[in-house]
Fold this protein.
Amino acid sequence: MNNKLPKDWYSRGYLPHYDPGSATQFITCRLFDSLPQKILEKFRAELETKNVGNIDREVMILIEKFLDSGYGECFLKERRIAEIVRNSLQKFDGERYKLISWVIMPNHIHLLFKPLNGWELSKILQSFKSFTAQEANKLLNRSGKFWMREYFDRRIRDYEHFEKTLRYIENNPVKAGFCEKPSDWEFGSAFVGTPSS
């Protein structure tokens, strides 16, 4: 499959990923148990029977709604786990990437960032996911998978797409019913206040 992908595209066997170097990217990483394969297959089958034009786009919309419903163990709702993720994201801001916007939800995270200094998107996410999984599993006294192997990535096309994505990320906890406004959600870039410990 890798041989057939256009320049700057790659795959680790499941989803194709686009890594054009320093382009701004919208990323979603989800926990390993946040979206069972049978649910994904059900979404696709239902949309195929409805003759929907852009099935991939509609599947992504359904996935986002499903993620916000809080399926799975939702390890990220635990403060100490969310703190590990937040601190890890912020650690390399300005060095490996420019972190523009982010939010930590109970079973997934959204990021808007731009790789810096020649860092590849895949290497940034592999390092982040590996470290946070190891640290979270230690605190949770468990072993095994933490993050889903794959992640969703989308290159930001233009300013309108950038603004829409930024609003989407910051409003995710509001849309999910966790807070009244983005600035209330402690585990997001829109938070206004002092994080509690």
In short: Confidence is low (pLDDT under 50) at residues 5-17.
